Amino acid sequence: MDTPPTGTPSKTSGDEPIDFKNDLIPMFTKLGCNAGKCHGSAIGRGGFKLSLYGGTPEADYDEIVRKLGGRRVNLVDPASSLVFLKPAEIVEHGGGAVIVDDDLNAQTLTKWIAQGARYIENRQLIRVDVTPNRYIASGIADETPLKVIAHYDDGVSRDVTYLTKFVAEDPSAVQLGSNPITAQGMRAGRHIIIARYSTEVIPIELIVPHLKPVRQLVSEPRHNFIDEEVFASLSDLRLPVSPNIPDHDFMRRVALDLTGRMPAYQRVEDEPPMDREAVIDGLLASEEFIEFYTLKFAELLRVQSKGDKNTVTTTPQAARGFHNWLAEQLRNGVGYDQIAREIITATGDTTHYGPATFYTAVEDARLQTEFATEVFLGSRMKCANCHNHPLDHWTQDDFHGLTAIFAKLTRSKVIRLNPVGKNIHPATGKAALMKIPGGDFLPIETKDGRGALAEWLTDRKNPYFAKAIVNRLWKSLMGRGLVEPVDDFRATNPATHPALLDRLADDFVQHGYDMRHTLKVIAMSSSYGRSSLPVDGNESDNRFYSHMVQKPLSPEVLADAISDVLGVASRYGDEAFGTRAVSLRDGAIQSESLDVLGRCDRTKSCEGTPSPIGPLAQKLHLLNGNLLNARIGAPSGRLERLIQSKNPPLTIVRVFYEYALNRPPNENEVAALKRWIDPDKPADQQRDALEDFVWSIVTCNEFITNH
Amino acid sequence: MRCSKRCDGVPRRSFVRVGGLSALGLGLGDLFRLQRANSSSPLSNQGSAAKAKSCILIWLDGGASHLDTFDPKPQAPTEVRGPFGSVETSLPGVRISEHLPKTGQMMDNLALIRSVTSPFGVHNFAVQYLMTGYKPTPALEYPSIASVVAHLKTQGGILPSNIAIPHLTSRDVATIGNGFLPNDTKHFSLGSDPGKASYKVRDLDFYRGLDISRLDRRRQIVNAMNEYGKLKSQAGGVNDPDLERAYNLIASTEAKAAFDLGNESTEMRGQYGIDPRANLGDSNNIGQQCLLARRLVERGVPFVTVNNVGWDNHLDLQTYANRHPGDSRSAPHSLIPGLDKALSALISDLSTRGMLDETLVLVMTDFGRTPKINSTGGRDHWPNCFSVAMAGGGVQCGQVIGASDDLGEFVTDRPITPGDLSATIYTLLGIDPGHELKTPDGRPIQVAPPASKVIKELIA
After folding, report:
1. Which one is predicted more confidently, A609 or A203?
2. Which pLDDT tens digit goes with each residue over A660-684?
3. What is the mean pLDDT of residues B415-434?
4. CA spacing 20 to 30 A to B13: which of A3, A133, A288, B296?
5. Where is B53: in which H helix or E strand?
6. pLDDT over 90 percentage in chain A
7. Do residues B416 and B429 make contact, with C-beta atoms less than 8 angstroms apart?
C-alpha cells in the first residue's frame, strides 16, 4: 500500500481516473456544498440540488452532468464549467469562494471534467480507519496529526485524510489544524471530534488529562469488569476517586435505586457487617422492585389512557392492562428480548391484551416508527423521514420501510392487520416497501412484517437492542447514561465508556436478556458504591464516575416518601386511598402534586428532559400548595399520633429523622432545632413549631436526593 | 446571499446538562452553582446610548408562516401566495398580511427583518438557536437570552427577573433555560393563563391557616438542616436561594399585585384583546398576556416572554385567521388577528405611558413555513428564510431589513442569523455582545456567539 503524506489528495494506481463517488462526493461534503443549508436542502439551492451529504451519488451525478441542459460541465474547457465557475466564485455564487484557483480541490474538479465527467465508481467503500481514534494527550495543546485510511472492496486502501471533514463537538475545547490536519485539546477533559468521509462518520476521542497528581488508583477495589473499565478511563484522565460509602448509606442508596423506597431504619450499632450481595438479591426479588421498574417501563412505553379528543384513543382498561402485563413479565423474570417480541408483534383487543396498547400510544405509522426506534434502539430516526439521517447511518428507505410495516395495522381499540394500509414514500410518491432498518426489503407479498422486525431486533447480533436497554439500566443506578441522552444512540454521539457498554451488553445477552442480572452486576461494582461527595480534584467531573452522581428522587418516589414520612397517603384520581404513586397504572390519573414535582406526561419521550416546572414555582408550591400543607398536621398523621402519645418534643424529632433520613439527628442539628422547639415544653403546646420542623425535613437536600 | 461554509456543523439533539434541575430544584448542578459573574462590567462602551431597560418577547410558538404575516407574496402563484391578501402599511411600498391591519398602520413604529435564516427545521433545535443565539451543541447548554438579560440586568427586586406567560415554550423544548447560569435567572412560568377567567398565579397566596411568620420559621429550619446535615447547601453554605426568592415573593403584597390584571380597567383589557371576563368562550389569549407583560416591565422586570401557542399548523391555513374551534362568537381573535390587536395595543400603550423607548418589543418564532402549500392546505417547517419584528427600546423604526426571494424561499438580501439577532438584542439592551460569562469549570462564553454581527442599522 502506497500511502501519500497526510494532507495531500490520494492516488491509488498512477493515473486512475477521478472516482465520482469516492473522490468527488466526499470533496463536496468537505466543502459544505451538499449540507442542508446549501445545495443539500430538500429543494436544493439556487436551482441546484445535491443529496444531503451525498447520500445518493447517482442523483447528484444526474444533477451535475445532465440537468440544466448539461451547462454545468464543459468537457472542452473544464475551467469554464458552471460547476467550477460557481464554487471558485468566478461567477456569482451565494456560497462564496469555496475553492481557490488551482488548489487541490480545484485540480480534482477540473481533472474529472477533463476526463469526461464520467460516473466512475472504481471500488466500493468497506470501512474507514481513523488514526488515532483515541488519543491521550500529554497535556493541554499537545498536537496530534489525524489520518484517515479508507478500505475498499478490491483490496485497495488509501489515505483520504484530505477528503475527510473534521468537526469538533466543542470548538472552544479543540483546535483543528488544516495543513497538515491535526487536533489539539485546549482544556482538560474528554473531547469528541467527528470525522466524516463519504457515508462514514467516525468519532475521535481526544483525552486531555487533568494535571494535578493523584492518589494511585491501583489499590482501589475492583469487583467486576465495570470497575476495570471505569478505572481505566479515570486513570487516563488522572481523576481521583471519592471513597466508598459505609453499609448504612449503601442500604439507602440501593433500596431507593432498586425499589424506589427508603429502607426501614436500623440503629448503626445493631447492624452486623452487610452482605451486600444478599441485600441486592433480596431487593431484586421483592414485589417493590417489580412495582418500581414497571413504572419505569410504563413511562418509556407511554402507557396512559387517552380520551376522545385524541385521534387515537386508549381506554383506561387498555392502559391498565398494559401496565399489569409489564408487571407480570417482570414478576416472571421474562427476558427483555421476549418482552420486546411480544410487544412488537402484538395484535388483538387492547382491552384484553396489554401489549397491543403499544400501537395506540401514537397517532400514525410514522410516529410509531419514531416511537419504536426510540424505545427499542435508543435511536432517533426522525430526520430520516425527510432525508437520509445526516448524523447517522439511517436512510430514508429505512424510515419509510419500517413505517410501511407499521402502516399495515389498524390503530384503534382492536389492533388488527389492515391489508390496504400503506405508507407513501415522499421521495418516490409511491407506497414504500417494507424494510428492516439497515437491512433487507421484505418480500412484496409479506402481510405482516412485524415478525421479521422482531426477529431482527432481538437477534443476538443486533448492535443496538441490548445496548439501548443496558444503557437505561445503567442510568437508573449510576445517574447518567454511558450514552446520553439515552434515546440518542448514533455514530456521532459515542458512549463515554464504549468498551464498558459493549461488555455490559454482551453480558446481558449471555445471561438471557435478564434485567435483574445486569442491575445486580452494576450494583455490585465498587463504582456504584462510591460516595457522592467530591474530593479535591474531581469536583467538576460529571460523567466519569469519580464520585457518585447525586440523583434527585423521581417525582413518584418522592411523593411516596413524603406520604410515608407524614404517615398520610395522597389521593390520586379515583384510585383507592393509599395507592402509592409508583404503582399508578395509568399516566393519565390526575395528580396536581405529581405534576408539580415534574412527572413524565407520557405524550413524548421524557428521557433527558428536565421538569418543566422551574425551581421558584416548585418552592412556591412547597410553601403554599397542598402537597405538604394538607397533610403535615392531619389528625391521622404521624406527627399528630406522636403528639397524642405524649412523646417529648425531641423524641418526635428523632423519630422523624429516622423515618426520613434513616439516621438520628446529630448534636449540631439538635442544638440548632432547640432554637424553635423547646425540649421542656409539651409537644401539644408547640404543634406549629413541630409542623414547621416536619415541613423542613421533607424538603431538605438530604431527603429529596439519593446521594 | 452567502451560505456559510460551516453550514453542516454537527447539530445534535443531545444536551449534557451542566446545571441540573431535579424534582425539587436540586440537582447535580447545585454542586457547581455559580455565583453571579462579577468580572468586567457587562455594559458596553456605548451603554449610555442604549435605551432599552426591559424586553418583551412575543414568541409565536411552533413557527409562524412568514408569508401569511410579515412577508406576503401577493405576486406569487396561488400555491405559494396562500389564501390571504395583503394590505398597505404606513411605510410606503411595504405590505403585510391583510389580517394585520392595525400593525400595518403602525409600521413606522416597527422594524421588520425579512431575512432571518437558520439551518434547523425541527422545533427543539430551532427554538434553542433563536432563544439562545447559539447553535445547539451537546458540549454545553447555553442560557437563553432571557436568562442572560435577567442575569446582567437584574434590579435585585422581589419580582423574578425572567417571567414566562404562561409558560416558556411547549414541552418539546423544555431544555431551554438558564443553562450554566444561576437558578434565579431561569424563567418563572406563571402556570396560569391571564387570558382565562380562572387566571391566578399558582401558589402565591397563603395556604389556609398559614401566615408569613410560619413560612419564615420553615425556611429557617430547613436552612439549618441543610447546613448541619449530610448534604450541605452547595451554594456556599448560605440559605437555599430558590427558597429565599419564593419566600420573599410571597411576603410582598406589592410584588403579588403586579400579577393582578384586576387592577386594569375594562377598557384597557378590551384594547389588548378579548377580556376573559366577557365569557366569550375559548379565545386567543395573547392580548391579556401582553397586557400582563406590560404591567411586569412597568415594575422593573427585565425580561418577559409571552408564549402564544398554536402556530405549528401543518393543515388548513384558514385557521390562522378563523376563530378557534368551538367558538361561535363573532369577535375575531384567532392567531393572526389576535396578534394584530395585541401587538398594536402594546405598542400604543407603551408609547402613551412613555415606556416605549425603554422597552424592547420582539416578535419571534421557531422558523417560517414552506412557501409551497402542502396537500392539506397548510405549510410545513421552513427555517431557510423567515421574519422577525421589533419595536421600541432604541430600535431604528420604520424600516424593513433584508428581503426574501419572490417565493419567500431564500434570503436574497442581508441574511441575518439568530446569532446576529441575539447580538443586536443585547446591544439594544445595553449589554456588550462580547461580554464574557463564566461556566462552572471556568470557560469564558460570550453572551452572543463570537461570529455574530450586530445589525447596525437597527440601532437608533
Report:
1. A203
2. 999 999 999 999 999 999 999 999 9
3. 96
4. A133
5. none
6. 64
7. no
A484/B16 touch (CB, cutoff 8 Å), yes or no: yes
Crossing angle of helices B241-251 and A615-624, rounded to 10°: 60
Convert A423-481 into a string of H (helix), E (strand) and C (coil).
Answer: CECCCCCCECCCECCCCCECCCCCCCCHHHHHHHHCCCCCCCHHHHHHHHHHHHHHCCC
ipTM: 0.81
Residues of B in contact with A617 (CB under 8 A): 188-189, 191, 202-203
A581 interface with B at CB cutoff 8 Å: no
The predicted structure's pLDDT at residue B36: 26
Helices (H) and strands (E) in chain B, counts: 11, 16
Beta bridge partners, A185, equal: A174
DSSP A496-537: SSHHHHHHHHHHHHHTTT-HHHHHHHHHHSTTTTB-SS--TT
Q: Which pLDDT tens digit goes with each residue over B442-452?
A: 678 899 998 89
Q: How far is CA A318 from CA A298, A371, B134, in A?
A: 12, 18, 44
**Are residues B189 and A612, on separate chains, in Cβ contact within 8 Å?**
yes
For A555, the closest of B13, B23, B167 (CB atoms) is B23
Count how many pairs of residues, chain A against chain B, have C-beta atoms within 8 Å.
262
Interface test mutation site (partner B, options A140, A424, A623, A628, max chain B beta carbons within 10 A):
A623
| pLDDT score at A214 | 65
> Which residue, among A187, A486, A701, would best test binding to B if mutated, counting the most B CBs under 10 Å from its CB?
A701
B44 CA: distance to closest CA in chain A (Å): 24
Which residue in the set B8, B228, B233 is minimally distant from A666, CB to CB?
B228
Range with lowest mean pLDDT among A143-157, A398-412, A499-513, A584-598 = A584-598
Residues in chain A: 707
In order of their start, the domains of chain A are: 20-114 (no CATH), 125-208 (2.60.40.1080), 247-284 (no CATH), 287-457 (no CATH), 555-706 (no CATH)
Structural domains of chain B ordered from first start: 41-204+265-458 (3.40.720.10), 206-258 (no CATH)
CA distance A525 to chain B (A): 22
Hunting for cell 396498547 — which residue is that?
A: A357
Question: Of A38, A543, A668, which is closest to B3 when you measure between CB atoms?
Answer: A38
Q: Which of A436, A433, A469, A468 is nearest to A450 (CA)?
A: A436
Closest chain A residue to B183 measured between Cα atoms?
Answer: A615
User: In chain A, whose CA is at the least distance from the CA of B159?
Assistant: A616
Looking at beta carbons, which residues of chain A come within 8 Å of B440? 540
Are A707 and B231 within 8 A, CB to CB? yes
Contacts of B18 in chain A (CB under 8 A): 542
CA quadruple B207, B209, B212, B216: dihedral, nearest 10 = -90
Per-residue pLDDT at B127 exceeds 70 = yes
Query: Inter-chain contact B5–A95, Cβ cutoff 8 Å?
Result: yes
Q: What's the confidence (pLDDT) of residue A273?
A: 84
Grade residue A212 by pLDDT with cuts at 50, 70 and 90. confident
What local confidence, expressed as pLDDT, does residue B140 receive? Answer: 77
SS3 A13: coil
Q: Which residue of A has its CA nearest to B30?
A: A550
> Which residue from A minimizes the CA distance to B5?
A32
Facing A37 at nearest CB: one of B3, B183, B209: B3
A617 and B22 in contact by Cβ < 8 A? no
% of chain B with per-residue pLDDT over 70: 82
d(CA B26, CA B233): 9
Q: Which residue has the higher pLDDT, A352 or B20?
A: A352
Flag the least confident range among A104-108, B63-67, B219-223, B322-326: B322-326
pLDDT digits (tens, 9 = 90+) for B77-114: 999 999 999 999 999 999 999 999 999 999 999 999 99
Contacts of B140 in chain A (CB under 8 A): 170
